[in-house]
Amino acid sequence: MSELVCKEIAVQDELSEDYDHIRYINEYSVMYQNTWFKTMISLVGATGLILDNGCGTGTLMEFLPTKDIIGFDISSGMLNKAKKRMNILVRGDSQRLPFKDETFNTIVCRGVLHHLQDTKEGVIEMYRVLKKKGELVILEPIQSVLSTIPRKLIKGSEHFSEIHKDFKKKELINVIQNKFRIEKIRHFGYIAYPLLGFPDVVDCFRYFRFKKQVASFLVDTDQLLQRIPMINTQSWGIIIKASKQSGKRR
């Protein structure tokens, strides 16, 4: 295991405490996080065994349509927190998944690829362990007008290792499209994303009065912006649904 990967694991182990005690406990962060969790999981249509690739603290568990799920993560800190939500957990590297070919009907992968040293290898591995015509649902941050400057400002903080990437939308799509057929792309995250979603990084919301009303307004505003052409492409992230098709082995 490379030194860079070891540093990434150390960062994730440390962040597991913040995720479990701040990000996914804070009332207004949870309000926002749950909104895009539901959007992501609404794209899952297949039944059968699901791999939560990069399950973190297991927060997707309550939104998935079945309990037939394996949680997978490289961070023992994250997996220790996930134990209270998920029954089957495996530790390992998403670039070398420890599963047989064509094991899973569906893979959900939330915010993992930008943490991998070799993004392409991570996509190849998900292709390998998915059954024929299996589904892949990925959520990743991307560069945009809104996100570029704020991300540069916090890039050097303890929340990010040297591996951490900022994908361009086209770059991410090309890597996935090389192995899968992309079926849907949804943009998400505008004003509410930085203000509500990450109190463990910057707790902007503590300065607001009438917190519940403001939070609800911001979430509604983000959902409105998702539906406006041109503007909606300037998001903090995208959700991609893709399927495994024969003949894509290149």
Mean pLDDT across the residues is 89
| CATH level-two architecture | 3-Layer(aba) Sandwich
Give the end-to-end Cα distance, rounded to a whole number of Å: 26 Å
How would a crystallographer describe the biggest sheet? Answer: 7 strands, mixed
Q: Say how many strands there are.
A: 7
Shape assignment = globular
Q: Work out the count of structural domains.
A: 1
Helix content: 25-40%
Give the CATH class: Alpha Beta
Q: Report the sheet-strand fraction.
A: 15-25%
CATH topology: Rossmann fold
The radius of gyration computed from the alpha-carbon positions, rounded to a whole number of angstroms, is 17 Å
- Label the structural class: alpha/beta
Order of strands in the sheet with most strands? 3-2-1-4-5-7-6
**Stretches with pLDDT under 50, minimum 5 residues:** none
Tell me about this structure:
With 250 residues, the chain is an alpha/beta fold. The protein has a single domain, classed as Rossmann fold, CATH 3.40.50.150. The protein contains 8 helices and 7 strands. It has helices spanning 3-23, 27-41, 76-82, 119-129, 148-154, 169-177, 192-196, 211-225; strands at 50-53, 69-73, 89-91, 104-110, 130-141, 180-188, 237-244. Strands 3-2-1-4-5-7-6 form a 7-stranded mixed sheet, sandwiched between helices. Helix 4 (119-129) links the parallel strand 4 and strand 5 (130-141). Helix 1 runs parallel beside helix 3 (76-82). The radius of gyration is 17 Å and the shape is globular. The two termini are 26 Å apart. The model has no long low-confidence stretch (mean pLDDT 89).
